[in-house]
Input
Amino acid sequence: MKPVSILFLLFFLTATAFSQAFVPVDNDTFEIIENVNYALYNNKQVVYSGITAPDTLTFVDEKTVFDSIAFSRVDYESKGFLRKHWDSVVFMSKKTIYLDEVVIGGKKDKEIILGETNRFVKRRSRPFPKELIYGSLFLNGSPQKLQLDKMAIYVDKVMFKTAYRINFTEVNETIGDEAHVFAAPGEVLYATDTLYLNPKDKGRVEVILPDGFYLPSTKKMFVWVQLLDYYDDSGVVVVPEDDKYTKLKFQLSEKANFYSKTSDYHTKELSKELINMNKWLNYDHAVLFFDTPHKSDLVAPAIVLYAHKVEMKPVGISNKL
Output
């Protein structure tokens, strides 16, 4: 869906109070749901049925007489309302999660997944940055060091051949005040060689990590994806239009490991520090609104690390009885 669609449509519905228009919205991601079946009933008889329009409002003919309405889609919980209780924004809950909508990997025995495995939020995808603007912090919370075996990132459909690399750095977290926690990436622990995405690539991209690349016990590491260049079909470096950038997917987040620089509203200049965005949002909502952010506001880059524990060799054990 278009990034501003839901905001525009909610404003339109509020401003016009148009009772014969509606839009189905995902309760988790706060995005418009396409191709929802709906049926209008009068005295328990179907008087009209249809499928919702994509990325826009669905209108009901004013001449249609009905007393209730029902909504259904195979992967969502069905909903129905009496007309007098019907709201123009219809929130629906996901029932079935498709593999291409979730950050997921076939977890093997003894395989450890660092990161999150939640649903993607389409409107929150962000272009690969050339400089460090955002990334994710990973923590080895175990008493043993972890061998990092591979990683996966998830991308929107690629429009231009894209050269990029993935950087792994040391990181130091500091608390600024009650609202802000900062991350200062330090020495580079490992950086991949130049990697490439080709036009039409999308979804999961797996990268094998080198042998002997460890995350020590209880240590933290910062990971970010760096854009190098875009190329056209002739191999010439180009600068695509904004809507054709290669974008990293973002997912719903249950942790506070997403750090990003912020942009000044007036000057558009980026902050010097990387700020823990989800902790900041949680604090602001608690203090200003006495509530919590909608779950679609709490997101993180779709970056997942796969590792296994390194077995500790016994030291100083005697064979004597």
About this structure: DSSP finds two helices and 24 strands in the chain. The two ends are 71 Å apart (CA to CA). Residues 277-289 form the longest helix (13 residues). The chain has two domains: 5-92, 108-309.
